[in-house]
Amino acid sequence: MLPGVGSFGPCARALRRSGLDVVAREFISADRPFLGICVGLQLLFEGSAEDPEDPGLGVLPGIVGRLPTGVKHPQMQWNELRGVPGRPSALLASMGPDPWVYFVHSYAPPMGDETVSTCDYGSKVVAAVERGALWGVQFHPEKSSDTGLALMKAFTELAR
Predict the structure, then answer these.
(1) What is the DSSP secondary-structure string of 118-144?
(2) Pick the catalytic residue: 105, 114, 142, 157?
(3) 107 near 121, Cβ under 8 Å?
(4) Which H helix or E strand runs over 17?
(5) Residue 60 domain-assigned?
(6) CA dihedral 65, 67, 70, 72 (to 10 degrees)
(7) Does residue 94 carry a pLDDT above 90?
(8) Which of 92, 121, 125, 128 is the most exposed place for a label (fewest CB within 10 A)?
(9) Which of 11, 38, 114, 130 is catalytic?
(10) What is the DSSP letter of 2?
(11) pLDDT at 20
(12) Alpha-carbon span 136 to 44, nearest angstrom
């Protein structure tokens, strides 16, 4: 599990300094269960517009971008998740249809083949990704009440 609070650059640098970037890539490439939360999700991508000079882990394609203009930054609120048609998620299934979760972020990953859930915040914003045993969520399960606990329980079950 790779949680994250703060900004992309300092988190990416701390991963590199500690050598945990190598450990994370090896873990993910071995298809072992891995969950990125908030900045931890963003670090799975190649980089971020927040700190363009600091590369991410690069296990998912694309650059994390700033939330759309015309909305408050950061998104700091409860918001409803919407599944992506044709992209069921083993991790999110336990949370029920269109659950409400808590977000705190100003940047989000690009839409891609791995996107399994979005929320509406000025436009569709990536809320969760999934590829094999790799999962990432932009929201904070630990702040999302019973819904977040259901997600964490589902992750531990899937990781067994």
Answers:
(1) EEESSSEEEEEEEETTEEEESS-GGGS
(2) 142
(3) no
(4) helix 8-18
(5) yes
(6) -140
(7) no
(8) 121
(9) 38
(10) B
(11) 96
(12) 8
* Neighbour order of strands in the sheet with 107-108: 45-48, 60-66, 107-108
Residue 38 annotated in active site: yes
Q: Which of 50, 114, 130, 140 is catalytic?
A: 140
- The question of whether 157 is a catalytic residue gets the answer no
Cβ pair 62, 46 in contact under 8 A: yes
Q: Tally the domains of the chain.
A: 1
Residues facing 66 on adjacent strands: 107
Phi/psi of residue 142, nearest 5 degrees: -70, -15
Q: Which CATH number characterizes residue 101's domain?
A: 3.40.50.880
List pLDDT tens digits, range 31-49. Answer: 999 999 999 999 999 999 9
Give me the amino acid identity at 138. Answer: Q
Instruction: Report phi then psi at 22, rounded to 5.
Output: -65, -45
Q: Domain range holding 141?
A: 8-159
- Is the model's pTM score more than 0.90? yes
Q: Is 142 a catalytic residue?
A: yes
